[in-house]
């Protein structure tokens, strides 16, 4: 998924429902090879406009849905239950992608390098960057995004760095957040299935952290990750506000409208 995101070439989905009906593109080797080619183009850093932010959210939402379809539990759920989980996770997933997979300037790689594990302090911790060189920062001209960006950088990105969260952790964490038994629209059967899977993931994440970091450190790390979920939900409320205002003037009916603002 990361290689596809970095390549910046794939066509985002236009319909959430059609996406859930169609085959999983991540299992299509030809599609993956075609859309994972390293982008050799040099990008000049530039502030991320609302239009660019919307583009990246749509891209990340497309990746979220393809990633979700890879999970075995999806084969056991009704379509409406799958969509309910996607809608619940939609405002958070792009934020987590940006906070963890932020890029940084590097002269040896055409200006962009991906840090898979955020254990090295970046050159500028007041800025988070997308693979195409656009960036968000706390101080910007768009007052609607200042608080949202500040919380994301200070309370999510820097926490991930401080805790030295690795890719294995973030994958399990994303799976945990996706399996939300309180997602609006879940059927009673789906809710029970998701509750069981979420409990299994909670135990798996804690055991994984304990084996890697030791019992005392794992408890601190585990509790911090759970508390960060509340922070991400807070940032997500700003996401809805920003795109809701944008929706009034730009009714595009893209994945943001379908999964975050208006609904299906």
UniProtKB/TrEMBL annotation:
InterPro entries: NHR-like_dom_sf (IPR035500), Nucl_hrmn_rcpt_lig-bd (IPR000536), Nuclear_hormone_rcpt_NR2 (IPR050274). Pfam families: Hormone_recep. Residues 28-264 form the NR LBD domain. SUPFAM superfamilies: Nuclear receptor ligand-binding domain. SMART domains: HOLI (SM00430). It comes from Diploscapter pachys. Keywords: Receptor, Transcription, Transcription regulation. This is NR LBD domain-containing protein. Signal peptide: none annotated. The keyword Oxidoreductase does not apply. Transmembrane segments: none annotated. The keyword Iron does not apply.
